[in-house]
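Hi V.,

You were right to ask for the full record rather than a summary. Here it is.
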Amino acid sequence: MDGETTTHTLTMAEEEEPLFSNLDLFLFTLIVGLVVYWFMSRKKPEPIPEFKKLDVPAPTTRETSFIEKMKKTGKNIIVFYGSQTGTAEEFANRLSKDAQRYGMKGMATDPEEYDMGELSRLSEIKNSLAIFCMATYGEGDPTDNAQDFYDWLQENDDEDLSGLNYSVFALGNKTYEHYNAMGKYIDKRLEELGAKRLFDLGQGDDDGNLEEDFISWREQFWPAICQHFGVEASGDDSSIRQYELKEHPDLKMNKVYSGEIGRLQSFEVQKPPYDSKNPFLAPVTVNRKLNEAGDRHLMHHELDITGSKIRYESGDHVAIFPVNDSALVNKLGQVLGVDLDVVFSLNNLDDESNKKHPFPCPTTYRTALTHYLDITNSPRTNVLYELAQYASDPKDQENMRKMASSSAEGKALYQNWVLDSCRNILAVLEDMPSLKPPIDHMCELLPRLQARYYSIASSSKVHPNSIHICSVVVEYKTKTGRTNKGVATNWLKNKPVTDNGHKSTIPMYIRKSQFRLPFKATNPVIMIGPGTGIAPFMGFIQERAWLKQQGKEVGETVMFFGCRHKNEDYMYREELEEAEKNGVLTQLHVAFSRDQEEKVYVQHLLKKNKEALWKLIHLENAHIYVCGDAKSMAKDVQTTFHEIAEELGAMARTQATDYIKKLMTKGRYSQDVWS
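Predicted structure:
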């Protein structure tokens, strides 16, 4: 019985056990709750907002086809200019205006802005003509803006220009070795490629009278062109404006140019790279007088280029943008009776022109006359011609037009009254009281104030963050009793290191040069640089000293310097004598031209040391460097080397001349000269 009871009890216990334990129920409830929570709490997908499509204008591209532009504007004459200082561009603009006077339509153009390969298409335009106003720069080189065109002419031997009519006017200086080389090359090269020359090559000599050369050529050029195209040479004498005046009485000053060369407010926010259109504002850290006595003022300036990313090498040039004397600017305002602080723009009447303004606009008349316009050089004849209409005295009108003519009397009057008397635009206005031109027309006609170039007087190996300049202040009395002052040197002279607690700055950029030390430091160098021509050689000497400090073997370093008086204008005397003492300069020869009765110049010292020099040049592969005045010194130095080669090399004069020319070709005779 007990056994049966036990069995029954176990069976009942098994039947009463639940399907899920409490733990199972808890876990099940938890899972269900989590699932419900996930469904309830998850975010609904947000609708994607519809953005309205913006109408973005297509980026504008500059027209690179001068053919299409000429067709569009009905022009048949195009004047290309290769210009470094603005003169060739000015002549191109004058020829372009002339075309209108002769019943044709012209445009002046920078070859850098267009595809010059289109010259072969110019024949598509009836009675078309390409004129080239080409300046030569440096040692027979093209100007910066004509470099690409020059390269294109050299590289394209198969180009067919048989449909192209052309004429060339070359601008140069006879004191230079390669006089008008660029103009001559283009004239010859275009003919080689099949183009037709419609008028003879014109050559302007800046050592003589460039303006007169241009006028004489132009006076014969237009009748010949009119005859060729069967156009009547009427020569309308009326003044032709290229720009129209617009004043801005309510414009905010942050929209007004205040001296910037390119981008508005580029002097407030500086951004590299720095060049002619975007100069760097370099703080002046040193401004010291180099001479202890005498009536001249020789200067040494140091510019800080820290953080600018500007790099330079010994022999390069620094370009600075000077500012006109405020006293001169104020006098112009007084003579013309105008408010110089009026904000204005000069807008090109030709909407299709790439050149919208003659200088950065909008600006004030004060800024234009201070930063953008050349008011110190004598005005060219075209300025006198255009402004003559504003003279109320008929005699003044007659004289101004006469000076702009090609007559012998007119040329003589311009030479005597304007050039020989060094009259600038202010002097012209003062001496012709009846002449009262509108200031906007005068601003349209005056040439641009150009950057000034100086040979750098330091080495980047020694001064990587500093650029040194040496110069002499230009100031002289004119025949009219006025005192004329050089724009850049007087501005530099008065540049303090700090200006009312602020850093005094100079807008500048670097222009590369071929004036370089030999690749091999062991090559001897012979440096000839009187006066401020010593500038690049200070950099050369610093670099040779640095090379010696690096343990490099350095060849002989010979310096020929010249000045007037030992105790007055012996520039960098301490530095030169220290370099000689330390063996950096193996020879230092100084010519003091006026310390004795008979004048002594560097060429005399060259002749005196002819044996040592000939040995260095002929046997030891020496490199010769000449820096300074092109007109006299550089020529006399070259003649002296001809004589040395003739005498010690036992050569005929023609052989000696060829010998020196070969040195130049090989880069062993380099010149950095100016006139």
